[in-house]
Specification:
By secondary structure, the chain is an alpha+beta fold. The chain has 3 helices and 6 strands. It has helices at residues 3-17, 20-24, 55-70; strands at 26-32, 35-41, 77-86, 95-106, 109-117, 123-133. Strand 5 (109-117) and strand 6 form a beta hairpin. The longest helix is centred in the middle third of the chain and has 16 residues, at 55-70. The termini are close together.
C-alpha cells in the first residue's frame, strides 16, 4: 500500500465514524500523508452575537483538519495540545478552508500547523497542534 493509498483509506475510515464534523457542516477535502483539508460554508447557525463566525466553530474546523492529517498514516493519534490565533473574522457566507500539514514527527509526538483561510485567500486563523500516537489503527492493513 502506498502512503497516499493509506492516507486516503485512513481518511475514509475516520470520516465514516466522525459524527461531529459533518454535524457542524464540514466537508472533508483531500487527505494526503501528513496533510489534510476540510471546508465549511459559514451559515447563520455558525455565527456569534457579533454576526461573525464563532471562534469555536473555526477552532473545530482547524482541529478536524489536524485530526485527519495526524491520522493519515493509519496510527490512532489524538490531540495533546492545540493553540489557535484568530487573525480576521469569518463572515456569514464565507467558505472557510483549513489546511493542515505536518511540521515534525518524532516517535509518538507530532507537530502540525493549520491555516484557515476564506474563499478569497484571506487568513482567518492559524493553529498549532501537538499530537500523540496511541494504540490501534483506523483499519486493518492485513486485509
Amino acid at each position: 500500500m502506498t502512503p497516499q493509498d493509506r492516507a486516503e483509506k485512513a481518511g475514509k475510515a475516520m470520516w465514516a465514524n466522525d459524527r461531529a464534523s459533518p454535524w457542524i457542516g464540514m466537508q472533508l477535502g483531500e487527505v494526503n500523508e501528513a496533510r489534510a483539508r476540510m471546508t465549511l460554508h459559514v451559515q447563520e447557525h455558525h455565527c456569534n452575537g457579533h454576526g461573525m463566525c464563532h471562534g469555536g466553530v473555526i477552532f473545530a474546523l482547524a482541529d478536524s483538519a489536524f485530526a485527519f492529517a495526524c491520522n493519515s498514516r493509519n496510527q490512532n493519534t489524538v490531540a495533546q495540545n492545540n493553540m489557535i490565533t484568530f487573525v480576521a473574522p469569518g463572515q456569514l457566507g464565507d467558505v472557510l478552508s483549513a489546511d493542515a500539514r505536518e511540521v515534525s514527527l518524532t516517535g509518538r509526538s507530532g507537530i502540525y500547523d493549520v491555516r484557515v483561510t476564506n474563499q478569497d485567500g484571506t487568513l482567518i486563523a492559524e493553529m498549532r497542534g501537538l499530537s500523540r500516537a496511541i494504540k490501534g489503527q483506523l483499519f486493518d492493513e492485513d486485509i
